[in-house]
Design brief:
Shape: elongated
Strand content: 15-25%
Number of strands: 12
Strand order of the largest sheet: 3-2-1-5-4
Low-confidence stretches: none
Structural class: alpha+beta
Number of domains: 2
Mean pLDDT: 89
Number of helices: 7
Radius of gyration: 20 Å
Amino acid sequence: MPRVLFMVERQQSGPLGLAAGRQLVRSARSSTEKMPWKELRSLEGVIETEFLRPIPFRARPARHGVLPLEGNQLLDGEDARLDLYPGLADWWRRAEQLWLYHRSSDRLTLRDQLDFRKKLTNQLPTPPLRVVYGKAGMHVSAALVENPAAVVDHTLCWGTVSSRSEGLHLSSLLNSPAITNLVRPLMSYGKDERHVDKHIWKLPIPLFDDSKPIHRRLSDLGEHCTDLVAALDPGASGNFVTLRRRIRSALAADSTAIEINELVLDLLFT
């Protein structure tokens, strides 16, 4: 995934500022970028703000991505509608040129790569509430996404929930050490990390039922843990593995962690 072409950081404009509805952005860089993308110069441009989508990925404010989404339609450089948005058109066509030059095969256009197997357009229109969890890692890590404008990164699995209570209940359950321990024997892994994917749903996880006290209690405890994590300062930088470890330690030190784990085991096996 050529993140240098999509993921961006907001930049301060000059003393004269910019017209309303426009934002100066620059490619967001990472030490985990792969060749040949890590050697490319960063893109910079002024983008119409409607095409800057929050993309939650880790326990701090979401990064933003430049995505040519007009409503629920994904545009490309040959679409005449792109020219209605000069900033987006300039960025996207430069990104397409870089993709065509550096891609490993000529099978996919940049639009095809971005929406491979419909991983982007299947999210549209974006639901108001989603639970997400990482596809890979030594620990299952989940969160509730409440921003309907957010687009979910391809390294996360996601599912809709019908209420905030259901989302908090499911997040509590997925983040419990009990779930990680139970799902580990089902997970494939390579050198350093295990792949969760959909193996979690091989466990006997019941549908949320607000009439059941144990479900409501997990939801309440999820609210408490949400407040606890929100009060932490993850710092402006740092590897996401370190950030997750810090959050797990803070949760483990809280008295609710033991109760959540016990409730999850009761829910699955009684």
